[in-house]
Amino acid sequence: MSSDSKKRITNRGANEEDDEVSAIITEETMAGEKSTMKPGDILNFFVKAWPYLKLLFKQLQSYESRVRQLETNVNKLRKEEKIVQNKVREAEKRHGRAVDDDVNNWLQEVKKVISQYENFCKDEDSSYAVFSDGYLPKPAVRYRLSVAVVHITKEVNKLLKNAQRDVFSYWRGPPSFDADFDNIRYESLPSRNQTMGDIVNALADSNVRVIGVHGWSGVGKTSLIKEVAKKVRGKMFDEVIMVNVTSSPDIRSIQGQIADRLGMKLEEESESGRAARIRDRLKNPKEKTLIILDDMRVKLDFNVLGIPLLDNNDGSQINPSTHHNYLMKTQVFGTSSLVKVAEPLARDKGCKILMVSDSEQLLLSQMNGKGIQRFHVEALTEEEAVMLFESMAEVGDGNSELKKLASKIAKNCKGLPVTIVTTANALKKKDLRVWEVTNQKLERQNLMAATPGFSTMLSYELLEDDELKSTFLVCASMGHDALITDLVRYCIGLGFLQGIHTVREAKDKVHVMVGKLKELSLLADSFSSDRFTMQDIIRDMAFSIASQQMHAFTLTKGKLDEWPDQDKLESYTAISLHHCDMTDIMKEFPESINCSRLRVFHLDSKDTLLEIPDYFFNGMKELRVLKLIGIHLPSLPSSIKCLKKLRMLCLERCKLREHLSVIGELKKLRVLSLSGSDIDSFPVQLRLLAKLQILDISNCFRLKEIPAHVLSSLTSLEELYVGNSPIEWKDEEGQGNQSQNASLSELKRLNQLTTLDMQIPKINYLPKNLSFYKLESYKIVISEYFNPYPMWDLNKREMPEASRYLALQLENGFNIHPQKEIKILFDRVENLLLGQLNDVEDIFYELNYEGFPYLKYLSIVSNSKVKSIINSKNKKHPEKAFPKLETLFLYAVTNIENICQSQITSDSFRKLKTIKLKICGQLKNVFFSSMIENFSKLETIEVSECNSLKEIVTLEMQNIQDQIKFPELRSLTLQSLSEFIGFYANCATTGEQVPNRWPGVLFDEKVVISKLERMELSLIKIQEVWNDHPLTRSYFRNLIHLDVNDCWNLKYLLSLSMSKSLLNLQSLFVSECGMMQRIFKEPEVGMVENEITLQISRLMFTRHEDFQLTKEVIKLFSFPLEPFSWPREIPSPRITLLLYHQLLTVFVES
């Protein structure tokens, strides 16, 4: 053997030696052939060949150990692959982000090497490479396979080393939008029920993609569609999204609302980029989405919004009405069926569109007269009108006079529900004389009475006082989905609330008035509880009233060619210009305008070239409210100092550079907002605003300096918003470069402060004895990072239902226990987000022994210290904990061992609806059986990537015979649980198997979740989803959606008897279940085939690449699809096969 060969053997590692073996033997053989070997040289040859023979013997000897090691490494690689795939799915589905090419390439390489390993395992000769049944292995085969093992091992190790683990971010999901479909006191009427049923049937029709609903303004289209949405949401459609289009559609706002409801965050600046993200999400075939476009008045470009229509590969639109023309006759499963082999059309079938408009012609124009099914909403019959009026006005049978008048008034409302409801609410609890006067007006003005405008005017006139009338008109000027907090600011600015002195009093008064206006149907609920909206027909009448009675000039997204003449300007009390085209007047913008009666000036513009002259405000001496949004102000007009009566100044999202000090001369100012504006520093002159009650400098991303002693001078301040502004607060010792900056100790002098929105970068900025006890609402973030929790929306006015938020992340050795000022906030916090906390292992015992009595939402993120939410197993008395908690979210809480292991009172956790756990590596279970009753309100359970979790419920000896009941559970998701055994497994006390427990089964008759609608199972080692006990079958009758993927131990999905129990199942997805031999288990003995009645509206089975129309695939269905003995009331199924790319999707539609 040559010296080079010896060096190669000596210097190579164990896994690399075999790459040289062939080269060495070839080299030595060639050397032997070049010379004539003598008999004496044979011994020398073996001596020289001994190192190679040793190596070969070692290779043959270590075969089994290397195969075992390869198997271990491949299993590790598969786990890594699933983790990355889950993160890819989450990033694409929830965030819509493009996945990095390196990640996709890594996944492709993993797929390739696992395929090589599987081929190796299938090699017929592999059985002859090991010792078995007394047979010696064949050395040549053993050597060849050993070389293959080494090669595959090298590739596997390389991929493990380069595994992508922390590429994708995580966001917990969208807020609830249940308020979208609130219908206060909706009345079910025969004509409406018929129309509703027709629309629901159309939505269920797979051939109908677009639906239009039209009818007179005020006929009740929106209320009807909200009822439709409630019927199909969560059943026929996974998501139902309702947006208000109006006559001036705001594209970004509509895109934002769609994204919010899909749980997405749009980070693109351009509308086209945002649309592309939304479109990709809506094309997901696994999700059925209904988009309702309400109050359409103009034609929309669906492409700009991101709403997909059926299209070809080249993007050209396909008429949905011709979709059925692709049918062709063929033989499937040995029976005659209609089979469609089409282009890739099915990808958009998950999204349907429902348009609502007064104009049928607009709906036809939107779809070019094709592919839309239309429904006309008729006016109510006289009988229905009287029924509705009497119900709304609360007319009892005992008052015959009122009943006669009610009948007359209702008939004069011409069958329009808006007119009927508004008029009835206006007259409710009024005396008989008011009813008679109203009826006389209707009879004298019968033509006008047919419009909702008359009822709006009547309701306005009957409002109880001027405060309520003024509030109604202000609401109309604020646009759709306005914030109640903005209304409060307006009311304080205008100063028309009598006897109101504080912001708290103003809030209470405004909430009462908003409630009254909703009762009268003059206002309506918006998509969240902290907002309100108004129907356009009511708003139009409100504008008319404001124009006639209050001399208000309002223009929204119109074109302003010239300023009104001087006579009109002098009469105006309010001017509101919202996103108007002012191109023609920009060059002739008046130096000043004389508006001696003007009390409100509101200008909202996106035109960066618009500039306001320095003396523009000289003629507005009576101005109370000045609101400028999106204006470029290199220098603040000096004429602002003339506005001595100004009470509210809002310069929001403006570019402000100089002369902000002039604001200090506005001594009567109550509200000052610079939110979102581009400012560098806070003028020291603002300390003169002694009457200021609300200061908002949030989201000012360049603002770092607030001069010392300015905040402490604002002694009337009640609300302070500085969130998301990187203020460099001075520490208590005044050290560092920012010694002239304000310190948080100045807050001690603000005795009236009740609301605080603030980010504190360092815990040592907090002064001692700073009490937060008087705060009624707060949003406080304490973290060294400017935005530590991107998944948590900290926008101060965008999070409904809770008014007290606290986020904590204390690292670098800081201890929370001495921080009494912070811990006192736990007593009333409603939304709590915890990051890393030092020395906190038990949330209940170490943070708030009172049990967080007001907490609704608890999130713990990226925490390695917490071991339990509450663990009092050694305590003698039960504890009361989290009585109002609705949502529990744990993400990357790596050392948590249990959620709750203690004696707790009956009202602990009683309101918990949602629990989501992800990457909690030490968690063994979610619940103990002794406390199941406390979680009876649970609606959603999601558990993923908890690698130690064996079961959802751990049984205890005293409950071993009891059923496990979750009576309200609607959604269950179990993903990537490597040690998972079943919904319950062993007895916690003895560790023994529970009697009669079915091994490898997720559910048996002991688990009762009879309201479950959605279930997603992924990467869990179950052998069966259900056992076949009659009770088990009865517990899942409400299941609508079932998604099973990557469950490799499943050999079949369900039995035929179980399938008969899934009466409401609408969608079924099965993928990547490699061991699955069939969907349905072999029929039980004695079962007759024609007894099988599947009421499934959509059955979807997917297999990638290797899924072809073969006999093996047909065997997945263990029953003949035809003929069936279908019940007469259920249409016979149509089998549709859609082939595209490498995916075959099978739909069974009833």
From TrEMBL:
Domain of life: Eukaryota
Coiled-coil intervals, chain numbering: 53-94
One Pfam family here: LRR_14
Region (Disordered) residue spans: 1-20
Gene3D superfamilies: Helical domain of apoptotic protease-activating factors, P-loop containing nucleotide triphosphate hydrolases, Ribonuclease Inhibitor
One Gene Ontology MF term: ATP binding
Name of the protein this chain belongs to: AAA+ ATPase domain-containing protein
Species for this entry: Flemingia macrophylla
